[in-house]
Amino acid sequence: MPKRQQGRDEDVLVASLRSGDEQAFMDLVDRYGPSMLRLARTFVSSRAVAEEVVQETWLGVLRGLDRFEGRSSLKTWIFRILANVARTRGERESRSLPFSSLDPAGSDEWAVDPSRFDAGGAWSSPPASWEDVPEDRLLSRETLAAIDQAIAALPQTQRTVISLRDVNGWTSDEVCNVLDISETNQRVLLHRARAKVRRALEQTLVGG
């Protein structure tokens, strides 16, 4: 859809929401609710708390509609509210540092175990290939469960970024805007997350 048309449609939607159109609001809940729950779940310890975060977010959306200025898309604005609410709940649960200060791009964490390189920097234990793994096994419940488990085991920042990029299909710009992180940090977090998930899949598929 052309951006101009999309913008007009969004203006109509916002006007409907501000006028108290319940159907417009329910359509919005149906459209974004599942993705919001998935994102909230990356911040907090249980589905029940994630559901509370989503409910609190919708209350925030309704209260803040009159202040929505359209400088970002409605979707980005809603998910930014969600991220702020979820981050606060998650930090309260874990007493952790703020999201933006965790796992910075300058961290010395290795995306790939250094022991897999020789002294000259070449692979001594290269990533295992699964080209010969049957497609039905790649798409099996076991493999999908291994992916879910690997993502769930990631540090919160990496888990959130890979969930938005690779599960929800967001662009890097959307992720940066919603999570308020730099493009460099987003890229590093995604790379580390993908490397860890791949390593877990190696063990599942080829016993690497």
Q: How many domains? A: 2
Structural class: mainly alpha
Q: Using the CA coordinates, give the radius of gyration.
A: 20 Å
Q: What is the number of E strands?
A: 0
Largest sheet: none
Under the CATH scheme, the architecture of the largest domain is: Orthogonal Bundle
Q: Superfamily at the CATH H level of the largest domain?
A: Winged helix-like DNA-binding domain superfamily/Winged helix DNA-binding domain
CATH class of the largest domain: Mainly Alpha
Q: Please trace the helix and strand order, writing H or E for each element.
A: HHHHHHHHH
Strand content: under 5%
Low-confidence stretches: 116-130
* Head-to-tail CA distance between termini: 45 Å
CATH topology of the largest domain: Arc Repressor Mutant, subunit A
Mean pLDDT across every amino acid position: 79
Short description:
This protein has 9 helices and no strands. By secondary structure, the chain is mainly α.
Give a structural overview:
By secondary structure, this protein is mainly α. It folds into two domains: 3-94, Orthogonal Bundle (Rna Polymerase Sigma Factor, Chain: A), CATH 1.10.1740; 108-205, Winged helix-like DNA-binding domain superfamily/Winged helix DNA-binding domain (Arc Repressor Mutant, subunit A, Orthogonal Bundle), CATH 1.10.10. It has nine helices and no strands. It has helices at residues 3-18, 22-41, 47-64, 74-94, 135-138, 141-152, 156-167, 172-179, 183-205. The longest helix has 23 residues, at 183-205. It is elongated, with a radius of gyration of 20 Å. Mean pLDDT is 79; it is low at 116-130.
